[in-house]
Amino acid sequence: MATFDILIGTTSGNTEYLALELADYLKQKGHHCEIHDEPDFDSLAEQAGTHSTWIACVASHGAGDYADSMLEFGEQLAAFEGHLNQQPYLVIAIGDSCYDTYCAAGRDCDERLEKAGAKRLAERLEIDMSQDDPEEKLFTWLENIQL
């Protein structure tokens, strides 16, 4: 049984809904999940590499910014100068391809986590809310990675 910290960055609630579906899926597989609807990067970084896998569910908002509930997380991550001790993580980026900033916040989060010494467990999942069936794409991705 693994432990997952699910970090939610949402503005309209779509990403939160998807993150809760993700948590249900993982719990059905026997895993433990902790939901962070306003994640605090500094607190999580203190425990990096010790016990869990982070799954960042990040919606892009406005000009590619982090969604409201994850703004502070994004700022803390950008200012971080330490090392994340190979903290395992996954990123689910949510966006709408009709904007040129499609999935920009999720891409930024993925890049910054990797640069800070975290260990990506699988390629980032990008979900286009105007084109994809979000749940279908999420569950297909989950079935193709080893958790």
From TrEMBL:
GO terms for molecular function: flavin adenine dinucleotide binding; FMN binding; oxidoreductase activity. GO terms for cellular component: cytosol. Keywords: Electron transport, Flavoprotein, FMN, Transport. Its cofactor is FMN. It holds the Pfam family Flavodoxin_1. The keyword Repeat does not apply. Residues 4-146 form the Flavodoxin-like domain. Transmembrane segments: none annotated. InterPro entries: Flavdoxin-like, Flavodoxin/NO_synth, Flavoprotein-like_sf. The keyword Cytoplasm does not apply. PANTHER family: NADPH OXIDOREDUCTASE A, NITRIC OXIDE SYNTHASE-RELATED. This is Flavodoxin. The lineage of its organism: Bacteria, Pseudomonadati, Pseudomonadota, Gammaproteobacteria, Alteromonadales.
